[in-house]
Amino acid sequence: MSFRRDNITKPIFSWARGVLPAMSDTEREALEAGDVWWDADLFTGDPDWTKLLKIAPAKLTDEEQAFLSGPVDKLCAMLDEWKIFWEMRDLPQDVWHFVKREKFFGMIIPKEFGGLGFSPYAHSEVVRKISTRSIAAAVTVMVPNSLGPGELLMRFGTKEQQERWLPRLADGRDIPCFGLTSPEAGSDAASMVDTGIICKGNFEDREVIGLRLNWHKRYITLGPVATLLGLAFKAYDPDHLVGDQEELGITVALIPTNLPGVEIGQRHLPSMQVFQNGPNWGRDVFIPLDYVIGGQERLGQGWKMLMTALAAGRGISLPSLSAAGAAYAARTTGAYARIREQFGISISKFEGVEEPLARIVATAYQLDAARRLTCAALNAGVHPAVISGIMKLHATERMRTAIDDAMDIHGGKGVIDGPQNYLGNLHRAVPVGITVEGANILTRNLIVFGQGAIRAHPYLLDEMNALADTDRERGLTAFDKAFWKHVGHSFETLLRAFGRSWSFGVFAMAPDAGDATPFYRQLSRYSAAFALCADMALLTLGGALKRKEMLSARFGDILSELYLLSAALKRWQDEGRQKEDFAALEWCMATGFRTIENRLAEILANLPNRFVAAFLKFVVQPFGARVLGPSDRVVHQCAGLVLEPSAARERLTPDLAHVDDDGGFARLERAFKLVAATDAIAKRMRGAHIRDWKEAVTKGVITQAEGEQLAAAHEAVTKVIEVDDFAPEALSPIYKKTADVHQFFQELGEQRAAS
Fold first, then answer.
1. Which residue ranges does the record assign to the Acyl-CoA dehydrogenase/oxidase N-terminal domain (predicted)?
2. Judging by beta carbons within 10 Å of its beta carbon (0-12, 13-18, 19+), is residue 256 exposed, middle or buried?
3. Pairing of strands 228-236, 176-179
4. Which of 64, 200, 211, 593 is in Cβ range 3.0-4.6 Å of 122 for a Cys bridge?
5. What is the pTM of this model?
6. Domains of the chain listed by start with CATH number
7. 3-state DSSP of 515-557
8. In 3-state terms, what secondary structure has residue 209?
9. Per-residue pLDDT tens for 487-533?
10. How far is Cα 264 from Cα 256, in angstroms, rounded to an integer?
């Protein structure tokens, strides 16, 4: 017997068991899904930076690169987003045939089942490139490779299920979708009322034990065209045909959509995006038990299966689309700002334009850094649940800011819709990313820190498991071991946070990273402050912290910034410490540090225990929140990264879809190159106070060839600045033909006069 355990730990154990809030099965399964990774290092308060820098960067194989520069480029050339939206409201049939034939739906399915067997990074790169050409096509491709039946079958399916269904999914004979969201259950998917009752029934002329299903799902991407539906429902066994338990819990099964009772609804139109999406119903649909993914033994395990699969999908699909959107915004907005003139000068010279442009550039740098780092984890077989939540939340939120900034700088060019508007549809699509795969509001307030505090903390999950142990003695022993390690860790963190905060991080641990070394020191400082404040909040609030959503959100923001800034540092290191890119890194760091400082101040101002809050302020923020954000110099340099053709611009915006057509993006690229190439010529003319190139040629300021270059550049810029217009009858059926327009208004005026 241990004196410490029986006399000191035991009263604490009894108290903690009494105040620990009950955890539902779905909450526990969500917590246990996926893995912890770099987030666990950040939670220690003393991250090992050498561990981060040793992580192998995600890379494409030769086969994956060939697919990206072959079928993916061909697909992009087939896509016209305006025609897809305005004329067809769907992908063209030749595109559907192409993506099936080239196995875009089977990218993650192993080759042994007829798929491409690509890595998560290759999946990400494909989605990223297609996203810069067509949102509808990108979503169509990403869904079967994300939270679809394929992912669940690969992880949890029986051998027979894999051999039957995966080849059909890989070659497009079956189009999959997954039915999770119900009218009654959105972000709280566990509250679904869709049911499956275990009973005996007739299936393919034989009596078997199976499930009689009733459901109503909505917002289901690919639902209207799916032939194979992955379905989440709650299983019940009232007659105890498979065991003693009546309520079995959330289960996932495969439902061929041609089964009797399956009803596919009409299409939704999400934010005017025309990827296939809609509701479906099942009324007394009977399936055998071997249609449950994983078979009978997986009954009731669906929630954990879903959370595990979602941990990977959330880290790839939407972050890839978001990173693509930010990079696309950086490239197009930099080019447009460079070629567009007001008051006789390029609008890129206005500081009011430089500020949002710098924000776009740095966001593109950071999001792609985080995407690559997360893919490196996934490539290594890690499925980081907390980091996937961070990525989904912050990638989509920061893309929203980047696209809004891009629209502001483009002004009317971005507002007027038509074939030449290369930004409008992306702007319309932003709310979709914000909403799906877990609404951002709830992800920020409940998931990132709520899940991270338990999963990524060095000892908290062990303590909770010990407290919940039904064997009290065994639980006490386990709790004694974990609790005192936690106490020792907390004292170390306290000393570390105090020393680093009062010394401004000067002596904090950091690798030799050249100009970036001070940034590592500051992140070490903030990691210690975060870990200490999180521990004290958990100690003083206990289970009540779960209900303090605004506090939880602020802690989540700090953890997210620590991860995203780590990713930016790793990118700069992996790319060879490019001096030209340092301004983007500086912008990310200054902005991230400001957010961390402000969130710490907000936490300390709102922590209910005011004595603890005052103590923590003395330890971690004795001089208040002092970081102001990026300097004007950094903003100027950061914006400049996309204003001229350069290697830095290409590194920032790599592998976007470049199609040499007469579309808005292609016109912009041509005009940008021509304007940059004639910059020196234009400067000579301005120096001579001459505006007309022919006059400049006559006076010998420039040559005839140079004048023609200027004329070509001017013509190209004019084509970019143009916006679309439409005949009235093209926009509204009330106008039968152009000649009817005047007659229509004349008759309308006569009717009003008569009344």
1. 81-172
2. middle
3. parallel
4. 64
5. 0.93
6. 3-23+448-559+581-628 (no CATH), 176-302 (2.40.110.10), 660-754 (no CATH)
7. HHHHHHHHHHHHHHHHHHHHHHHHHHHHHHHHHCHHHHHHHHH
8. strand
9. 999 999 999 999 999 999 998 989 999 999 999 999 999 999 999 99
10. 12
